[in-house]
Amino acid sequence: MEFKAKQKWIKLSPQKARLVVDVVRGLDVQNAIDTLKFMPQKAAPLVSKAVRSALANAREYKGEDKPDIDKLFLKSVAVDVGPTLKRIKPRAYGRAHRIRRRTSHIMVVLAERTEEELTAARARGEGRRKVGGRGAPKGEPGKPAEGAPEGRAAAPAKPKRPRFLGFKKKQDKYGAKVKGAGEAPEKPAAERRKTERGTKRGRKKK
Question: Distance between CA atoms of 67 and 61, rounded to whole angstroms?
Fold first, then answer.
């Protein structure tokens, strides 16, 4: 059994609405509503309104095979292109540029999961923890962490590198040239004379 709801003539571009719709497609109804509640996009409350409308249709169904609300999920959520409103923006020298106000139609279809699909969806939602990955249980280096599969040890912890290591090397490299940092090697007398009296080309002939 499927339950549908449609929001028409929404003043929003279909391209922007599809970014939100792609996030919640395939989720359980309650999970989809909670996700849309915290999304900052303009389309989020509009899509949520369509989902809640379809959920109300399922609750008010008077047939014999009444659906289980907890098993409903978003089977399909589509955003169709509505009519485009044409507007004009005045520009220089008497010209006019066309403005297109796009509209959308949001179509939501809810369906009931079977027991096999419900079990598989819950298994996918829980996910598996990987040793050493993000969200993995912590443990001592070299020892398997709690909840890790047997026969596999956690990777050894890497030693922390000191910060600003390159900056310290530069200080050591150029520190001898700073005044007072160290004694510079003495130049030979001939070179001293060159710097004091000038180069060989610039000397006066005696």
Answer: 8
158: left (phi over 0), alpha (psi -120 to 50) or beta: beta
Amino acid (one-letter) located at 150: E
CATH of 2-126, one of 3.40.50.300, 3.40.50.970, 3.40.50.150, 3.90.470.10: 3.90.470.10
Q: Identify which has the larger pLDDT, 103 or 127.
A: 103
Angle (nearest 5°) at CA 14 between 10 and 15: 145
Which sign, positive or negative, has the C-alpha torsion 77, 81, 83, 88? positive
- Top-confidence residue, 116 or 131: 116
Question: What is d(CA 144, CA 157) in angstroms, rounded to the nearest whole number?
Answer: 12
- pTM score: 0.57
Q: How is residue 28 annotated by DSSP?
A: B
* Best CA proximity match to 125, nearest among 54, 4, 21, 30: 30
